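Below sits the subject:

***
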Amino acid sequence: MIYDNHNRPITYVRLAVTDRCNLRCFYCMPEEGIKYLPKHQVLTYEEMERLVRVLAQLGVQKVRITGGEPFVRAGLMDFLHRLAEIDGLNDISLTTNGVLTAPHVGALAALGVKSVNLSLDTLDRERFRQITRRDELPAVLKTLDALLAAGIHTKINAVVMDGQNTQDLVPLTDMTRTMPVDVRFIEEMPFNGEGSHYPVLHWTHRRIVEEIQSHFPDLQKLPDPPFSTSANYQVPGHQGTIGVIAAFSRTFCGTCNRIRMTAQGTLKTCLYDNGVLDVRALLRGGASDDELTVAFLKAFSHRPANGFEAEQQRDTVTESMSTIGG
């Protein structure tokens, strides 16, 4: 196992396989979209497989596939099969918006994918269309049904946005009554291609919990697993759980065990940094596995203590979450 300069283990990589997406979510990118990377600037699956193998040798045990939307890239399932053969990697997970996912759920289950994070910010079709700028809620709900039927651990990711979907806190929480899902409410972050939508973040993690408690007064705090980014709760008698992620307040940085690799091969040791290592240049420049290892270890030894320190070391945040990989 490897540790950063703050004695935090690094065991988890979030790997973006594309920056492209079939939705245009309010909190992720402008309505007109973003300028996508040319194909030759995106890592090939072979390059991604190699860097995951190197990271696995260093102690990374979990990889989460992200985007953009992973299923807009052809050949994803073949790539997942190759990842499943990497020694030391014992957890392959996926984050998806669910629009294209339903036909692949059986194959994901057969592959041993342990969990899927499904982005779902509202259960109201018109609000879904307004938030995502696409009318795709039925397709997402079809994926949710398929995931539950396949027995795949499903987490619902809902970004809480002032004036957009705060009225959905109660119906989304109520999903846990009859469904074995983890509904996670996430503070909105400025990674939308435009910068922060608000001078002040009104819907903080504390306010989210208070709003849920006002409707579910017996809400109980649960123990948080090691390295959890969410504070976890449950309404007694409900099958599922609630999580609240202080993504903007950044209360969980002290136990962060994850790194990110963007689709163009930029290593981010913190969500809020500007990228700390051009892995694509190393891969295409002929670097050996040993040289990649040295470069990774050097990057891990200069990791910021938290997201605030990382943000202070860069210009204003304006990129899209689609380019970061979540």
Q: What stands out?
A: The CA atoms of residues 184 and 259 lie 20 Å apart. The two ends are 24 Å apart (CA to CA).
